[in-house]
Amino acid sequence: MTLTVDQLSLGTIGTNCYIVRRDEGAPDAVVIDPGADAGEIMSALDRAGAACGAILLTHSHYDHIGALTELAEVTGAPVWLPEGEHEVFRRPNDFFGGLGVSIRGYEGASTLLTGGETITVAGVAFEVSAVPGHSPGHLAYYAPGHLFSGDVLFAGSVGRTDLPFGSWDQLLGSIRALAEAYPSETIVHSGHGPATTLGDELGRNPFLAELRTS
Q1: Whole-angstrom Cα distance, residue 121 to residue 168?
Q2: Rounded (5°) CA angle 132-16-130
Q3: How far is CA 71 from CA 35, 55, 143, 164, in A?
Q4: What is the rounded (10 degree) CA torsion for 131, 111, 14, 181?
Q5: In degrees rounded to 5, what are phi and psi of residue 94?
Q6: Running DSSP on this structure, what letter comes out for residue 123?
Q7: How many domains does the chain have?
Q8: Second label for 47, Cα 20 to 30 Å away, from 26, 94, 151, 212?
Q9: What is the DSSP letter of 138?
Q10: CA atoms of 43 and 175, how far apart (whole Å)
Q11: 68 and 55 in contact (C-beta within 8 Å)?
């Protein structure tokens, strides 16, 4: 299987949304982190000639979930969420209203994940990892050769831990676990910015110096 991954940068702070197909001609796609602009996501699916077969969320921060409810309603696609942040998906404005954003909560059907599962959606098998640190219930999704890391690991940086429920020790432990689980050439598709690889980040990321000496 050779995955096809299309990256969209959406919303006011350029959050990455991914459209993932098992190959270029696959009729169904997985949408990971529909952060904003459901119309743009639907247009990208149309350009790819694919239907939305599933929606996966890495975590519940407002910039990753803004289009979730509309996209789920329009497509009827099943939704997979981190169990540890379920209430935030349902009532996002209770958590983020002070930031001046307004998001429709998602109260539709969903499958709740905790990490350790393997799920197959739109013909793609994903290993699900619990990767807390940036947020308490954060998940990452791995399909052969590709890791969708949300806001845990970026090219040259890592996720913030100064937000509520953030933890530097947990974040570093999560990145260590990913590095031990998957090959160094694994492509990392982050929540913001360009793609990278696990090996490049372990070798050069200034925030991961502790992992290079442990």
Answers
A1: 32
A2: 20
A3: 10, 9, 23, 27
A4: 30
A5: -65, -25
A6: T
A7: 1
A8: 151
A9: -
A10: 34
A11: yes
Tens digit of pLDDT for each residue in 53-109? 999 999 999 999 999 999 999 999 999 999 999 999 999 888 887 787 888 999 999
| Coil, strand or helix at 125 | strand
pLDDT digits (tens, 9 = 90+) for 28-61: 999 999 999 999 999 999 999 999 999 999 999 9
Containing domain of residue 201, as a range? 4-213
Kindly list the distances between the CA atom of residue 47 and the CA atoms of 24, 152, 178, 190, in Å, as whole numbers in the listed order.
12, 30, 33, 23
Contact 109, 79 (CB under 8 A): yes
Which amino acid, 115? G
pTM: 0.96
Closest CA to 33 of 54, 64, 6: 64
**What are the distances in angstroms from CA 135 to CA 74, 85, 128, 131, 147?**
28, 9, 16, 8, 18
What are the phi and psi torsion angles at 210 (to 5°)?
-65, -35
Regarding beta strands 118-121 and 124-130, do their DSSP bridges make them parallel or antiparallel, or are they unpaired?
antiparallel
Round to whole Å and give the CA distance between 190 and 158.
10
